[in-house]
Amino acid sequence: MSEYRLEMHDVVKTFPGVKALDHAQLRLRPGTVHALMGENGAGKSTLMKCMFGIYHMDEGEVIYEGERVQIKGPLDALNRGIAMVHQELQPIPERSIGENIYVGRYPLKHFGPIKVIDHAKMYEDAAKVLKEVHLNYDPKAKLGSLSVSQMQLVEIAKAVSADCKVLILDEPTSSLTAAEVEALFTIVNELRAKGVCIVYISHKMDEILRISDEVTVMRDGQYIGTWNAKELTTDFIITKMVGRELTNLFPQRENVPGEVVFEVQDFTSINPKSFRHASFNVRKGEILGVAGLVGAQRTELMEGLFGLRSHTAGRITYKGRELKINQPKDAINNGIAMLTEDRRATGILGVLSIADNVSIASLNQYLMAGIMLNDSKIEQLVRDNVAKLSIKTPSSRTQIQSLSGGNQQKVLISRWLANDPDIFILDEPTRGIDVGAKYEIYCIIAELAKQGKSVIMISSEMSELIGMSDRVMVMCDGRVTGFIDGAEANQENIMALATQFE
Amino acid sequence: MGETKTTALNGKSVLKFISDHAIIFLIILLALFTWANSQNFMSKDNVGNLISNVAPRFIIACGVSGCLITKGTDLSAGRQVGLAACFAAMMQQTLDYSARVFDWMPDMHWVFALLISVAIMGCIGAVNGCVIAFLKVPPFIATLGMQTLVYGACQVITGNQPIGGFKQNYRDLASGNFFGERLLPYLLLPALLVGLFMWFLYNKTRHGKYMYAIGGNENAAQVAGVNVNASLIRIYILASVMYALAGFLIGSKAGGASTATGQGYELEAIAACTIGGVSVNGGVGRISGILVGVLVFEVLKICLQFLRFDPAYTFIAQGLVIIVAVALDLRKYLAKK
Q: Which of A103, A137, A338, A347 could form a disulfide with A425 if both were Cys (CB 3.0 to 4.6 A apart)?
C-alpha cells in the first residue's frame, strides 16, 4: 500500500481543437484536504471529471488504493467510494430532499417478487445524513423550498451519504454565505479526521490557505507542482497559476469623481421582502461599490433600476431629469447599461456569434434606409472592440459560448460600449473569471470611470470592493444601511453594516 | 468562417461532410435510383409538378420557421392554411355557380381575395402571438388550442360543404406556366419572392437579429433591450400571413377547398424545418436549410410514387426520415461536448 490513496499519472484528454489535459497528475494522501488550483480553463474540472468517470481519458492511469483501476462511469466511481459535488448543481426542485439525496440508488425492499422503493428507510437514512452534516432540514420537504446555498449543502450531504473515501468539491462555496462556509468547513474537517481525502477546487485564496493541507497548481492542462499549503502565500499561488508575476491585483485608478449625476430616491420593490426605501447617488466618474451578504437584495435593487423588476415607489433622476423606467429598453434609451450577475442565464446569447452578441443592443445605429442593417459597419464595430478590449476569439463569427468566461464578459461589455451609456451597472463583473482576465476587467472599469462614466459595481469579494471603489454602499436585508469612503473601507466596517438586521 | 473552412480535402473530411448531410445524400441516391428505374422521372412535367408541390409547402415552412427559431411552434399552421384556402375559394367562385357561398358578393379580383385572406389570418396570428407573449401560454398549447378553434370556425363558415366552381383566372394562378414552359410554373414566383423576403428579413434586419436573439436566450435578449413580446407577436403574425398566401395558392392548385384542406401541413412544415437544420433548441436556422428540408420530403414522396409503393409506405418513410434526420443533426452538436 502506497502512501497515496489515489494517484493520477500523465493524464491526457483532447477535445476537438483543444488539449484540455496535457500529462496532468495528482496524488492524494488519505485524511488530507488537497486544493486543486488554476485559472479557468486550466483543466481542473476536466481532470476531476476524468477521475469521476464522466470523461474517459485518452492516456494516463489512475491508481486507487495501490491498484491500477479504470473508472467506467459515475456509478462505478461512487461504488468505489469516489464522490463529487459539481460546480453546477443538478437539483430536482420538485422532489423531496430525501429523494434528491438518494436519486439513482434508492433503498429497495422486496414486495413479493417486485422490488419497490423503501421510502421509510430512505427518509430515515436521509435524516441521519443531514444530521451528520449539521443540517436541520426535514428530508420530506421539497428541495425547491430551500435556497440555492442550502441546496448546495444538501448536495454535500448527498456525497457524504455515499460513504466516500475521496470527495471532490468543485467550487463548493461559490453561493454560500460566510456562516454557511463555516458550516461547510466544519464538515470538511470532520471528514478529514475520518480519513477521507478531499479535493477542493476554489478560486478563493483565503479559503484555500485556511482549509487545505496540500496545493496542486495546474496551468493550460499541465501539472505545475504540488506544495505544502503551510509554506504558501497568495502571491506565490497566483504567480504559479498565471505563469508570470502579477505585481498589482488592481490597476492604478486615475478617475476623478465629479458632480452628482444619478440619483435614486426611496426606491421600493413591489415585493415587500425585497428592496425598500433605497436612496443613493452616484457621481460622474465615480465607482460606487455595492456590498452586502447573499439575500441583501443588491441584485434585485439594480435590476429594479434597470427595469427588469417592478417597483411601487421611488424616483430616479439623471442630471436632474426624472427617468421613467419600466423595461430594460427604457433604461438603455436613458443611457444606462447593465451587466447581469448570471452571465449564462441573462447575458450571453450562447449559440449566436460574437458579432451578433456585440451588436444586439445597438442595432438602431446601423440601419440603412431605416430597414437594412449595415453589415460592414457592424463588422467594423466588432473588430474595434475585439482589438480594444483584447478579446481572444478565432473570428467574429465564433459562437460566444465557446469563449472563456473572461472573454464572454468582455464581449458583453463591448455590447454596452457600443451604446455609449453614461451609467454602468456591473453585477459581480468578475464572477467565475480567472485571475489574469480579472485584472483586465478591472482595467476596463477604471478606464470607464476615467472617461467620466458612473459605475455601480456589485461585488461579493471584499478585496475587489475595497480595491476598486471610490465609495462603498452597503445593503442589508433590502435596505441601504450605509456608505463608506473607499479609502476607509475595510472588511470590518463593511461587515458591520452588512449585518445590520432590523 | 473562411479560416475554418480551409481544412485539406482528405478522405476523413469528405466522410464527415457526407455523414453530416447523410439524409440529403440518401435522398439524392434515391432520386438517381428512381431515375434509372422508371420512365419520365426527369420529364418536364414531373419536375414542374415537384416545383408546384414544393412552392406552397416552402412558404408554410418559412412561416413556421420563425416560431421554431424562437423555441416556439405553430400547430395551427395547417388549419390556418385550410381556412385561408376556404376564404379565398369562397371569394373566387364564378358568379353563375349554383352553390356560391357568398352569393351577395360582387365579382372580385383575386388580388383582393388574397389581401382579405391575409388580413384575416394575420388577425389569427396576432391572437396566437398575444396569447404566447402576454399570457405566457406555452406555444405548443396555445397553438394546439388555435388549431382546434380554427378547424371549428372553418366548419361553421363553410357549412361543412366543399367549395368549388372557381373562376378560371384564379385557377390559372397555380396551373399556369411562365412562357408556357412546364419547368416554370407560376407557383415558382411567390415561393421565390417569399424565400428572398425571408432571407432578407432574417439576415439583414433588426427583426431577424432580435428573433435569433430571443431563440438564443430570451432573458438575455430582454436585458439587451429587445422588446420580446412585440417581436414574438410580429413573428406569429408573419407566420399566419405566410399560411394565408399558401392557402390561397393551394386552393387554386387543388381547384377546390374544404375543411380538410391543409390538414397535417403543420407537421410536415415543422419536420421540413428540422431536417433543414432549424434547431429545436432555438436560435439556429437558415432559409436555405428550410428549402432543402422541404425538397427532401417532396423528392422522397415523388420517388416512392414512381417506384410504385403504396401511399401508406410513404408515411412510414417520411416518419423514419424525420427521426433519422433529427438524430443525425443532434449528433453533430453532441459530438462537440
A: A338
